[in-house]
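Today's session is about reading a structure prediction critically. Students often jump straight to the picture, but the first step is always the sequence itself: look for stretches that repeat, for charged clusters, for runs of hydrophobic residues. Only then move on to the predicted structure, which in these notes is written as discrete structure tokens rather than atom positions. Here is the chain we will use throughout the hour.
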Amino acid sequence: MAENTLQLCTFQLANALFGLDTMLVQEIIKVPDITKVYQAPAEILGIINLRGKIVTIIDLAIKLDLETEMETENRRIIIVESHNEPFGLMVDQINDVIHINQDEIDTAPANVNIAQGRYITGVFRDEERLIAILNLEEITSNSEAKPE
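Below is the predicted structure for this chain, in token form.
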């Protein structure tokens, strides 16, 4: 693979398509029972025990302020590590892995709302779709934590 190529794990969230660098993805799992954490921000669904590690589960739809109506059987959790801590990102459906040239990544459009814009590092367009590339560090930072 060329040095300038990026592999993206793509997934559906509401009616939008997102991508995350595959180097950041540890694994993808089916949705297990999630233990609720009281007083947590709305986007924190709770925690799970994944092979002895406590993993915080973030609902990306809530974090990105998107309406989602996807069937629960298609939902998956993308396990990542950020800030030396494991996180699970709840998504509606996993799509595929694509290879893109980093030169083809554009900045996020100006019409993206401010809250969403900070979570997106750029967008990739091909002839049939637009993929928003997530900024994992911003998604998992708790700088926006607010009690329910």
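Discussion point for the tutorial: The chain has a mean pLDDT of 86.
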